Amino acid sequence: MSRSSELAERWDAAWPAALDSWSPYTLLKPPIYFETQKQAEACGMAGQVAAIRLADQTVMVNLATVRELGLEDHSLAILAHEIGHHVHVPGNLADNARMLAAMKPLLIGLPPETPAMVANLYGDLHLNDRLQRRHGIDVASVYVRLRESGRTSDPTETWKVYTRAYEHLWRLPPGTIAPPDITPVVNADALLVSRLIRHFSVRWLAGARRFAAILFPYLNADREKPQTFLSAGLGDCKDCGQGAAIPDGLTAVDPAELGEDGEFDAAINGEAEDDDDQNPRQPEPGKGSPGSQHRSPLEYADLLRGMGLVLPGHEVTARYYRERAKPHLLPFPSRRQPAATETHPEGYEGWDAGDDLQDLDMLGSLMRSPVVVPGITTVRRVYGEVAGKEPDRAPVDLDIYIDCSGSMPDPSAYTSYLALCGTILVLSALRAGASVQATLWSGPGQFKTTSGFIRDENRLIDIVTGYICGSTAFPLHVLRDTYRERRASARATHIVVISDDGADTMLSNDETGAPGTDICRLAMERAGAGGTLVLNLFNPESWDAGKRLAELGFHIHPVRDWEELVAFAARFARETYK
Amino acid sequence: MTMPVLADLLRWLAETPPEFREDPPLAAVLGDLLESLGHPDMDVAALARGEAGLKPRAERNRRLWILAACRLLWHPSFRLSDLPADGLRHLFAKELPRVAAITAADALVTEEDRREELVRRTLRAVGMGLAGETLLESEDRFCQVDSVEGRLVARGAAERERRAREVREAMAREAARMAAARYSSE
């Protein structure tokens, strides 16, 4: 990556003006230049003109391609365009993901890399129009040069619409940028694209679906042909998400992804024509409030894949539930201790050179000897504990059992409100300073447990959102072993079982023949902070085991949808605090 | 002529007295306005009446849009301006009924973009610009807030999507046919 070439220096000189074209306050590090295709290949940029990386806000320029295409004098237009990808469209990973999510449903049936390319085309149209029209930067001549270079001599249908749209936007004579054989249909669609770009130039995300809809037939017609846009080296956002951390907020569907209004959907379904002139569109209060709709875990995983973020499946699931749980964390219960202890200074002891520096008491050491000799004259304070006057509060630990038998929904495929509920409880407990034991269970011998109370969030969420899909048998042995020899002084624990009607196996016998009722009773006594059953039950009243489990002290909450989950959270907080 | 400032006009509209939204007699309001703007001879009754055949709800919506424009034109920025009669006639008789046909006047209360649309539509009709804005910027911004254009674009895109859906369905049928043919040949 040499930056010494004369061309690199010329392009570098154009960088401040390129930044300035967006705003005098735009700050980005200077671009990385590749002098040869071999150098560029290491970053997946062979044959490309330029590219961006959203992970570290980088602009990369392949000077070898720039020379091949004769674009040496177009530094300002190209650099300003790449900067635009960082500051306008897509601007960041999350908005890039939302754009892809908005387009994908309209591009079903096309090759998997299509949405990323369509998003790239859409972003380029917005950026180029703004640069050409508002900032007077001659982007059009870049396309003219590309045409002259011969790289676009066998254009795809998509390229025809795309380039003709520029001609409409900039009122250029037909054939300036676009190929000569533009049909009236292509021309009409290009005109529509140009109007769409202007209308959605600020709320660009809202126009993404419509753009994809217009391009679909052209992309479909181009299936057997390499896309001119990519073969001309213009796919500058192709892998822009690689190496980035997953941005927050992607589990929710942004209202802008849906076009912010029902206009498009109504028009697709032919409703708009019926009410024209007689029934003006009313504003829809409440519609589109952020986070009001969520993707399924599968859609979320698909979105991350589309962004080039390749993660193990279960990590994606855990992240999905963690993100959805965070806004709903509960004030987890704590218990009053008889009295807190207070620290009390009791004197000095020697401080050795290997001890923590923060423990060294310099004043004490100097009082002992004005000459400080580490390990000889140095001291540290010793503190004792005395009973305090103020009562202390200790958090209640959580012992959670998640049913993942065949009757339960797979949390990685469908939104499982039970897994979400478990995640909320675990994160709430950890936030309150409690420790958690999590056990994922299905049939006999099919279980996964932390084997003790821990505070490792990743491991706990892995278990809570996991899936085994076997038969149903509550792991009574785990419950039994947890509480059989529990010390009386151990911290109070709340037992939570997340299941469906398979929770009645809590009342079966364990592998030694001991009745589950006795095991549950003992556990509830020794846990000391009650128990809760969160159940996916459609008719809780007719569930026979419910009464017996309630007699043992368990609170039973049916949770089958979002409303019940929120209601449970409120009740749980209320009941454990009363 | 002093160019009005967009923020002032938007605030003026946002502070519209509730009486304007309670559908007061349009002819009276319009008559007062046009007289004070120096056009007492315009056919106020025809402008207030609008086109026949609209359903009551749509007709009320049209009146509310015109009333909102009247409120806007009462702004001091317009008092000393010599607003062209043709422009005003076009605004009340064509522009506003067109936008009223697709957007409820309630949106003028809830959406700032709609208020801006009314400001820009009105200024275009009377041939005025906004302070600190070039003609190009003004055109671009109008295009962004123009709900009529938005509706036309949405319709155009939706029509293409209907076409695309047919293609997708044909593709799915073809794939199913191929799969069935393969299955039966095996």
Provide an overview of this structure.
The complex is a heterodimer of chains A (578) and B (186). Chain A is an alpha/beta fold. Chain A folds into three domains: 6-231, no CATH class; 339-387, no CATH class; 396-577, von Willebrand factor, type A domain (Rossmann fold, 3-Layer(aba) Sandwich), CATH 3.40.50.410. Chain A has helices at 6-20, 37-41, 63-69, 75-87, 93-103, 114-133, 140-149, 157-169, 184-199, 208-221, 228-231, 263-268, 272-275, 297-306, 313-325, 362-368, 417-431, 457-464, 476-484, 516-527, 544-551, 562-577, and strands at residues 32-34, 50-53, 58-62, 334-336, 341-350, 379-387, 393-395, 397-403, 436-441, 447-449, 493-499, 528-535, 554-558. In chain A, the strands form four sheets. Chain A has a six-stranded mixed beta sheet with strand order 10-9-8-11-12-13. In chain A, strand 12, helix 21 and strand 13 form a beta-alpha-beta unit. In chain A, helix 5 (93-103) crosses helix 10 (208-221) and helix 9 (184-199) packs antiparallel against helix 10 (208-221). The longest helix of chain A has 20 residues, at 114-133. Residues 284-290 of chain A have low confidence and may be disordered. Chain B is mostly helical and 186 residues long. Chain B folds into two domains: 6-132; 146-186. In chain B, 72% of the residues lie in helices and 0% in strands. Chain B is elongated. The chains are: A alpha/beta (578), B mainly alpha (186). The A-B interface holds A 106, 108-109, 133-134, 189, 192, 195-196, 198-203, 207, 209-211, 213-214, 216-217, 220, 259, 263-264, 267-268, 270, 272, 276-283, 285 and B 54-55, 57-58, 61, 100-107, 110-111, 136-137, 140, 143-144, 146, 149-165, 167-168, 171-172.
Proportion of beta-strand residues of chain A: 5-15%
Beta-strand residue percentage of chain B:
under 5%
- If you average the pLDDT of chain B, what whole number results? 91
Count up the helices of chain A: 22
Mean pLDDT score of chain A: 87
Shape annotation of chain A:
flat
**Biggest sheet of chain B: strands, sense, closure?**
none
Question: Which value, in Å, is the CA radius of gyration of chain B?
Answer: 23 Å
**Tally of DSSP β-strands of chain B:** 0
Tell me the number of strands of chain A. 13
What is the count of helical runs of chain B? 10
